[in-house]
């Protein structure tokens, strides 16, 4: 078992908190660097819709005081960080009395569920097919078919989502067009509800899986080919070990390690891709929330949702990184080879 | 083929050695077909402007909601040769949209990737050569940037700046395009620095500059090329994503924005498949082309993969 040295652990945790702090600061700075005043912009949007807003300068003054925009930037910044620590991200501007954190709380489980399932499916399927591609004993029919299924690889997932939605939901009526569960159902722990969630989730999950499993398959294939050239593989063959045994114990288990690292790296991109897929399927997750907020120019919600998603991603990457020494006993934080090895 | 079949085919056996000038790893069918796909898109972008009336891209320049030639829309109108790929609901010609939009997407991707790769080369060499705290710092920043889902930050930025040009958008995308090349180049520089020929050059008194650009850089070329293609694909992906959400350049026709407008006008339910389908198809072709180039470059750089697929 790998052991964690305190120094490496501290460095990793530093990166984690740095990520969160940097993104929080960027989110704080962007609106203040952008030309114009957010509240004046809001008033001008209001007047675009209503034609004329009475006493608009008084409104601006009142709002400025209320949001503390007249304080020094430093005071604002400290207050902002303190609020973030309590997950207090202010109110939604479009749905006023609703707080951003309550909207996030409603949407996050859907996103996490979808993300978790699609990552697991993609990772397992991709690595399995990649291993088959590289294995010498795989029937050549299988070796010919797998590359054909990878035609969607590299296409943005939301384009695949549009395509699947059109073919399977609009044309063939096999799957629902939108949403995460059937109309008139209440979220509860009943079989009816769960099956409806699964039924609604198939298309979103497959649009993510379809476009990304090929990357894992290719990476796995490359790793397997490298492993196959190793001396211990020749020895295993010479010893006459069961080929299935060598496939799993000798090849896959060695080849999968860099794939886990790659998973940590690609997580951010996967989250980004999923936002768009959710919006195509009107899935009630963070993606749809962000999209609605963009349309309503609801800046608090955009900020809050993005921040929470960034924290979620960073946490997931941290967890993968911390688990890693336990998967690969050769690499431990103790001898700091983790950065150089892969 | 080989004189000594018991040996692994190494660089010295005829299979891997160069027999003539056509026997180069760069003549890889994946690489070449990918390049021709991308070349075709560029060609359409150039020739299309010469042979097709580009004014048709303006709103209300054409009849509304016409289907492509050979199809019928819901109102029973048939496609005409005046608008061979149909029109959408603002009266823009789809062919003109494609001819202008496709090179725009490529432009954003290539510009962002060039900027990102340049920064990546500089930082990667600095981290690999200077080492110590410079290496630590660069690694810290690139690792941190890599974990942040870039699309989210870009959404925040663009939600506030409603008017961006294609070039500004590419620069914003480049902010997130540099960590991956940096990481890759640093790793390669670290391993190459210790290799025989670099040591040899160092002992013969070559300057650090000469070591970097004369000895190491040429060997990095396949990696740089692969990294460039990967970054371009990533940047186009992010750009299309932003445009698909309704952000990004509002006045320039782009493929992503066409898809956004189609989804907004529920083209899916109105069965106007050409409206969202054509830009999707063109984007898919671009991505498949880039992907093929990358696969080819992988095989060019890694002889083991070449052998396995050959």
Structural write-up:
The complex is a heterodimer of chains A (342) and B (310). Chain A is mainly alpha-helical and 342 residues long. In chain A, 74% of the residues lie in helices and 0% in strands. Chain A folds into two domains: 1-94 and 296-342, no CATH class; 107-285, MetI-like fold (Orthogonal Bundle), CATH 1.10.3720. Chain A has 13 helices and no strands. In chain A, helix 9 (231-239) crosses helix 10, helix 10 (243-280) packs antiparallel against helix 12 and helix 11 (286-296) packs antiparallel against helix 12. The longest helix of chain A is centred in the middle third of the chain and has 38 residues, at 191-228. The model of chain A is unreliable at 335-342 (pLDDT under 50). Chain B has one domain: MetI-like (MetI-like fold, Orthogonal Bundle). Chain B is an all-alpha fold and 310 residues long. At the A-B interface, helix 1, helix 7, helix 8, helix 10 and helix 11 of A face helix 3, helix 4, helix 8, helix 10 and helix 11 of B.
Brief overview, please?
The complex is a heterodimer of chains A (342) and B (310). Chain A has helices at 6-33, 38-50, 56-66, 73-85, 100-134, 140-149, 157-171, 191-228, 231-239, 243-280, 286-296, 299-327, 338-341. Chain A is mainly α and 342 residues long.
Keywords:
heterodimer; A: 342 residues; mainly alpha; MetI-like fold; 2 domains; 13 helices; 0% strand; disordered C terminus; B: 310 residues; 11 helices; disordered N terminus
Shape of chain A: globular
Strand runs of chain A, count: 0
CATH architecture of chain B: Orthogonal Bundle
In the predicted model, the low-confidence regions of chain B spanning at least 5 consecutive residues are: 1-15
- Quaternary structure annotation: heterodimer
Bin the helical content of chain A: over 70%
Mean pLDDT of chain A: 80
Proportion of residues in extended strands of chain B: under 5%
N- to C-terminal distance of chain B: 14 Å
In CATH terms, what is the fold-level topology of the largest domain in chain A?
MetI-like fold
CATH architecture assignment of the largest domain in chain A: Orthogonal Bundle
Helix content of chain B: 55-70%
Q: Determine and state the CATH class of chain B.
A: Mainly Alpha
What is the domain tally of chain B? 1
The gross shape of chain B turns out to be: elongated
Number of domains of chain A: 2
Rg of chain B from C-alpha positions? 24 Å
Structural class of chain B: mainly alpha
Record field, number of beta strands of chain B:
0
Order of helices and strands of chain A: HHHHHHHHHHHHH
Superfamily (CATH H level) name of the largest domain in chain A: MetI-like
